[in-house]
Amino acid sequence: MTSTFPDISISTDRLVLRPFEAEDVPALAEMMSDELVTAWTSVPHPYTTAHARDWALREAPAERTDGRGIVFAVTEFLTHRLVGCVHLHHTDWRALSAEVGYVVAPWARGEGYACESVLAVAEWLFRDQKFERLELRTAADNTASQQVAQKIGCISEGVLRNAWIGRGRTEDGGWTELRTDLIIWSLLPEDLDEMRERPAGDPGYAAAFHDWS
């Protein structure tokens, strides 16, 4: 029997993580059309409103109901504006492990939203769902995503050589596919415990747990 995650929402001081809704489609289409999203993810390009609607209303819910994972729309608590997406996938119900992916809208970057939302999901995954491992994979040149992994306490476990296909700009302004390495990161329940025990003045602690409880 396939296990499934519950249909829930998660709140932090600044954010609400919830299932996608029809009202999110325009903002989702805009977010996923950003150049950095195109470069470092496998989403279609160009990313259309039809793609966004299919993801928000069909594919994302099916991730949960089919037992593959769960998708959260990340929104600001005060404005309800869509700031990003967190996706648990490649879920192994026997090993109690999952992989996490995340995207933040261009206008919302630099506010600590990626760290805050991924930590909230990790806390829920470990505490409520009793999972034992969360994995991240970042392209070798995607330094922003690597910084998120480091700030939330992940441990780098190694490199998968030539394992990912990203995208790069061509001289005529188009896009071309580029092979790159993947860095493997992991987060375990005890890693979060260690993060909480760091001094309040520690830069890593402050960056990772900014306004989060």
TrEMBL record:
Q: List the GO cellular component terms.
A: cytoplasm
- Coiled coil: which residue ranges? none
Q: Name one GO molecular function term.
A: protein N-terminal-serine acetyltransferase activity
Superkingdom field: Bacteria
Where is the secretion signal located? none
Ranges for the N-acetyltransferase domain? 15-190
Q: Which Gene3D superfamilies match?
A: 3.40.630.30
What residue intervals traverse the membrane?
none
One protein family per Pfam: Acetyltransf_3
Q: Which PANTHER family match?
A: ACETYLTRANSFERASE, RIBOSOMAL-PROTEIN-SERINE ACETYLTRANSFERASE
Q: What is this protein called?
A: GNAT family N-acetyltransferase
Q: State the taxonomy lineage.
A: Bacteria, Bacillati, Actinomycetota, Actinomycetes, Kitasatosporales
